[in-house]
Amino acid sequence: MSLSLYSQYRQHQLEALLEITRIFASSSDLSALLRTILGYAADLVHADFGYIALTTPSGALRITTGYRLPTEVFEQLSPYLAQKRPVEDFWAEQELRRQLKLVNAVTKATLEQVVSLPLVLEDEEVVGGIFLFRTGTIAFTPGDRMLLRDFADQAAVAVRNARQVEQLRTEKARVEAIIENNPNGIMLLDPQLRIEIVNRAITRLLGVSEDEAVGKHCTRVLKLENRTGEHLCLGESTPPPPTRVLYGEGDIIRPGHKTVTVGVSYSPLFGGDGRLVNIIVTFVDITRYREAENLKSTFISVISHELKTPVSLIKGYAGTLARTDVTPDPDFVRESAEIIVEEADRLTELIDNLLDASRIQTGALSMDPQPVDIAAVAQKTVERFRTQTDRHQFILDFPDDLPLALADERRLRQVFDNLISNAIKYSPRGGKITIGALRREDKIMAFVQDEGVGISEEELDAIFESFYRVDSSLRRSTQGAGLGLFLVKAIVQAMGGDVWVQSRPGQGSAFYFTLPIAP
Ligand code: ADP
């Protein structure tokens, strides 16, 4: 090649490289970049066709970009390139000859020249190769190869950039998935405490949509106060960006929803230059933990109170009976013994209830369902209670043709026991207590109705929780551990039924439960 021809050539190459650089700056589309690079390179060395193949994870090559590449050549070369081998083999003279043969065999062309250059990254990793073919006897010169080297380097950079972009994209998608699917609430704030990202758990916890939250100052979205009334999102006016992880606990109060207790931590995220980039806020729902803690302390106070009364009565009466300095009056002895038995029974009942409550919690409440006559069980229970009160009038309301229920008789007795004793306890001024049942589709619905103090609407759900007692003056004067209705609900549900209550404060309550009909 003459000098002027070479400098023309060189000029072309520089223009092409400049154009490629321009495209690089405006696009990160790898296939568009490779196509341009290959096109210029092929033009420059007058190739008839060519391709760029990239290395696959298994160590083979795969054609990603073709230049005037006939389909049949592509089909012929692909399986050849797909064979795993040391990547240097692909540029070995003898292998290039094989390629020529393969190509000529399908195209019936007389290609005689082939040149190939690996695409090499700075760290020597070979990421692919550029292959160009042409007819004629003029072989590719070292000059051609030198010119092509720049194109191969550009292609390698494009591959590296695309890989980095892909890696970033994967990394971003991974982080997003971790944030979005985290069961704990995660929120990202900018340094001005405006919300940038909220995950699904947060939107569920706060009852706001992502659109409602993003862009807002966090105090506007997060109505979160700690026990001393401080706002748990940092101050609105002069935000003190945290320099270390801050932790607080508070309640999320949403009208019409159960209060959720959360532990919130704020972690600052600093950029390389030490500037605050984000504040990462995580919410952990600790409601259950708090409930368990509360339950534990309620359990201790209720149980100690409920145990103390019968124990001190038993001790008092037994102590008096044991005195040797006085001859006891026989009536007093009988009455004292009756009280001791009654209080011992109360203790036994409390212990039984506690054992049942613990069985319920461990799922070990045993049931032996048999066909049972509900009316007979209710009648027997009522007979026992009749002797305990003269203020209440008991009415039994069972139709004659009521079918037998499928229930565990002992447990059913426990249900009536609890409901009737509550009906008595919580109607201190007496009144009617109606116990009955009726058939309702494929179930039997039983009820215990009283004319007592009733239950306010807000308490209706809570009374079925363990150790829950409505706070009233009556609570202080009646005994109870708040386990009765918890057991009733668990027993009825274990027998395949359901339980609910209707009540009006001051007018009375009606407890309903269903049971399956015996087959
Ligand atoms: P306990 O009677 O030991 O307190 P329960 O679980 O049986 O526990 O009842 C829970 C609470 O529900 C009671 O403390 C009481 O306030 C309320 N309750 C239950 N039955 C009635 C009723 N028939 N009328 C009014 N309040 C009731």
CATH topology of the largest domain, anyone? Beta-Lactamase
The CATH homologous superfamily of the largest domain is called GAF domain
CA-based gyration radius: 42 Å
Q: Give the rounded overall mean pLDDT.
A: 85
Low confidence ranges? none
Enumerate the strands of the largest sheet in spatial order, edge to edge or round the barrel: 6-5-10-9-8-7
Bound molecules: adenosine-5'-diphosphate
Q: How much helix is in the residues?
A: 40-55%
Number of helices: 14
Separation of the first and last Cα atoms: 104 Å
Report the CATH architecture of the largest domain: 2-Layer Sandwich
The CATH C-level class name of the largest domain: Alpha Beta
- The class by helix and strand makeup works out as alpha+beta
Major sheet description? 6 strands, antiparallel
Q: Could you tell me the number of beta strands?
A: 17
Instruction: Please indicate the percent range of residues in DSSP E strands (runs of 2 or more).
Output: 15-25%
Q: Specify the overall morphology.
A: elongated
Q: How many structural domains can be distinguished in the coordinates?
A: 4
Report on the structure:
This protein is an alpha+beta fold and 519 residues long. It has 4 domains: 3-175, GAF domain (Beta-Lactamase, 2-Layer Sandwich); 183-285, Beta-Lactamase; 290-362, Helix Hairpins (Orthogonal Bundle); 370-516, Histidine kinase-like ATPase, C-terminal domain (Heat Shock Protein 90), CATH 3.30.565. The protein contains 14 helices and 17 strands. It has helices at 3-26, 30-44, 71-81, 93-107, 142-181, 200-206, 210-213, 218-221, 287-322, 330-362, 374-386, 409-425, 473-477, 484-494, and strands spanning 49-55, 61-67, 111-120, 126-135, 185-189, 195-198, 224-226, 246-252, 260-270, 276-285, 370-372, 392-397, 405-407, 431-440, 443-449, 499-504, 508-516. A 6-stranded antiparallel sheet has the order 6-5-10-9-8-7. Strand 9 (260-270) and strand 10 form a beta hairpin. It is elongated and about 140 Å long. The model has no long low-confidence stretch (mean pLDDT 85).
